[in-house]
Amino acid sequence: MNLLLIGFMGVGKSTVAEKLAQTLAMPLIDLDALIEQRIGMPIKDYFEKFGETAFRQVETAVLQENLTIEAVIATGGGVVLKAFNRKLLQKHPRVVYLTASDQHIVQRLHNDQRNVRPLILEKTPEEILAIAKERESYYQEAATIVVDTSDKTPEAIVAEIKERLSLV
Ligand code: S3P
After folding, report:
1. How confident is the model at residue 85 (pLDDT cuts 50, 70, 90)?
2. How far is the centre of ligand 1, averaged over its atoms, from the C-alpha of 149 (Å)?
């Protein structure tokens, strides 16, 4: 059985996925990394060249192809935008929605300059949080459990997920 992590940009999906995969001795799949392999360029460049709609098509294809693999799977923050993807996710019993306070989201995105996220380039904190609000019900719809990551270490988050999914 796989374990999927969903949630807005900056909530820590990749970090938590890596640690979960380690402690559960499961393979790790990072969908954004697989998408970049597939398109042969950074996601930001693909957005610029081909637009968001084309990116979402690749994202759905890569999601679908990897859902059957028994692994810890980190998704991109916009994977829930398509109703089709939400339906796919709902078929899986371990979909963990990671949340964070507004302050944490803004701070983490500000600190993470290495990962260039096209949808938030040149956006104000208020605009970024408005996108997060728009998506909130979509994450809820696809999730099995919701875990707030604010003020918690990755280790504590991993322990909480394991306990709540009875993986300990
Ligand atoms: C996106 C989130 C990104 C990446 C792309 C679009 C989004 O992934 O898939 O830039 O729409 O929220 P992370 O959530 O890992 O940053």
Report:
1. very high
2. 18
